[in-house]
Amino acid sequence: MKSNSRNDFRFGLEAEFLLVDSTSFRPLWHKDVTFETLNTALEAIPVNDFQCRSFKIEPPHRKASPYIVEGYHLPDPEMKPIDLLPKGVEIRTPVYNSIDDCLLALKTLHSRYKKR
Questions:
Q1: Do the domain assignments include residue 34?
Q2: Which helix (H) or strand (E) segment is 75 a member of?
């Protein structure tokens, strides 16, 4: 019998990936790819079958997603992030009650990411 108590063991996973050139494996940097280009590609990956409402939206991202551009934030004069210099991508799973479900979600999300 499953319990939904706050004391149940629940967790999600995060995996970070360095951006590299597909031929030379040279690390890509903000001079090679912009936040907007990378984020647009990540937002095009289908995630409707995942619970994304619980994900925090970190500016300059616009919507909750398992895919996040990792990098260095560039703030406006009020110190609010307005851009980001990409260095990688983070894939995060929703929270699950089982390790198997969590690993399956990560495998699915990673597979979709690799197809982009």
A1: yes
A2: strand 67-75
* Residue numbers of the domain that contains 94: 14-115
Reading the chain (116 residues) residue by residue, the pLDDT tens digits are 455 556 677 889 999 999 999 899 999 988 899 999 999 999 999 999 998 878 889 889 999 999 999 999 999 999 988 999 999 999 999 999 999 999 999 999 999 999 87
Detail the DSSP E strand segments found in 1-116.
14-18, 67-75, 81-92
Give me the number of domains the chain comprises: 1
Residue 1 lies in a domain: no
62 token code pair: 């616009």
Whole-prediction pTM value?
Answer: 0.85
- Examine residue 8 and state whether it is found in any structural domain, yes or no: no
Joined together, the tokens standing for residue 60 give 């300059």
What letter represents residue 40's amino acid? Answer: T
